[in-house]
């Protein structure tokens, strides 16, 4: 059985990629990563300029789950998985005795001798919690469920599990006790500054020459073992956000009854978020207040030595900074007014103008509710005007009607270099909207076309590159591209003209990236007409390096266009 959360859309080849592992009759389930399409969610951080995307769950699905899999201890995550029916029958079905049925089911399967497989390839995309409130409620439920499972199954001394499986499950349960550790870390400078009580008797040279290297190596080791997916500064912000709910979750080890609550995925409200974040505000206020108190106690019997005072002021200031950044981000996400995620995908749009002359534009930031239109028509229409045309999808033209809700010009601060329209779709038949949704959801197209990566080089990798070749600029092929629609003709080909979109030329090599809705001849000459805000512009080049990008609808093709 293939199992997905209701908000997950699987790739068309999901079963083709996963069912082969079940040829081994001892494999109970195949788990794939839980990836998400709404990259503006609370748990995502997107850097468009660097084309870097990171999620709070990236480390788990890219590093921790593969590590567990090496010990036959990867666990079922509740979605994006295939489970053998016979294995479920063997344990009496899904384990609904706790609020986290997924990890509970995994433990019972492993205790019965069944194997698991983690296939580290993203084959389904769902909806991540949009704001801090659903995010924290979800983490609380996961933590409480883990405590329940620990209490019911024993884990460390449970029969049927191998030693490595026991340690792997125990590591998952113990992770929630990190909340207590963080509480001590956040409040320690407050206690030291306001009472003058030092946790270390001798803060001298002998201590510092041991402590400082240890502290630096701690972060360095984390970055290395995280394989480039750790992101220490971002991780610390989420540690700040989660510490209180993790502490609360640990009480689930003793509570007998917990209520299962589905994680809400709608956008949060600012005032509710502020109330939810009272522990983070408390940490911020206490550390802010402790700094002047510690300074005021200089020269009294409760005052700290100068070195200790400086160290604890810096410690408190760092804690304040992390808390302030985390709170600010949570409030900014909570006040977002977008009703639905907009995919940063470029799609050619043929617009029918009132004069009867068609023009080609580019639709981007697309959702089933609307899109942004860039190109020639943007400079000639007004707010409230209705436009008709066709979105040129891989499966063919999709007739659309849009209502212009906003007009932006290059002089506006919110817009970069060319006119743009904010448009709302006016759907007629439901099949039309369904065709667009089939194109948008269930594929990694937005990652591919925008050159997104969730991994950065580790410190050792950066040092190795620098020592070998000097400073290296790490860029991805499509990072930061700006697209324009293009009409092209194939030279020496019987096929007619085609439609696609094209990037700007690389300032160093002159190479451009061409995305086509149809196949182009390798090493063939191509004559194209790029559509710009100032009018059409001729493009000539040679087609090279074909790459096929799969979507739910139909494949599209990626090429390099050289001079």
Produce the secondary structure layout.
Blueprint: E1 2-3, E2 9-10, H1 14-18, E3 27-31, E4 35-36, E5 44-47, E6 52-55, H2 58-70, E7 81-83, H3 85-90, H4 101-111, E8 115-118, E9 124-126, H5 132-153, H6 163-174, H7 178-195, H8 205-225, H9 232-250, H10 270-276, H11 278-296, H12 306-334, E10 347-352, E11 358-364, E12 370-375, E13 386-393, E14 396-408, E15 420-425, H13 430-440, H14 445-449, H15 459-469, E16 483-490, E17 498-503, E18 512-516, E19 525-532, E20 535-549, E21 556-562
Parallel strand pairs: 3-8, 4-9
Antiparallel strand pairs: 1-7, 2-9, 3-7, 5-6, 10-11, 10-13, 11-12, 12-15, 13-14, 14-15, 16-17, 16-19, 17-18, 18-21, 19-20, 20-21
Observed structural traits:
single chain, 563 residues, alpha+beta, Thrombin, subunit H, 3 domains, 6-stranded antiparallel β-barrel, 6-stranded antiparallel beta barrel, 22% strand, globular
What is shown here, in short?
The protein has helices at residues 14-18, 58-70, 85-90, 101-111, 132-153, 163-174, 178-195, 205-225, 232-250, 270-276, 278-296, 306-334, 430-440, 445-449, 459-469; strands at residues 2-3, 9-10, 27-31, 35-36, 44-47, 52-55, 81-83, 115-118, 124-126, 347-352, 358-364, 370-375, 386-393, 396-408, 420-425, 483-490, 498-503, 512-516, 525-532, 535-549, 556-562.
Strand content: 15-25%
Major beta sheet summary: 6 strands, antiparallel, barrel
Q: Assign the structural class, choosing from mainly alpha, mainly beta, alpha/beta, alpha+beta, or little secondary structure.
A: alpha+beta
| Strand segment count | 21
Q: What gross morphology would you assign?
A: globular
Q: How many domains comprise the coordinates?
A: 3
Strand arrangement in the largest pleated sheet: 10-11-12-15-14-13
Radius of gyration: 27 Å
**If you average the pLDDT, what whole number results?**
87
Helix content: 25-40%
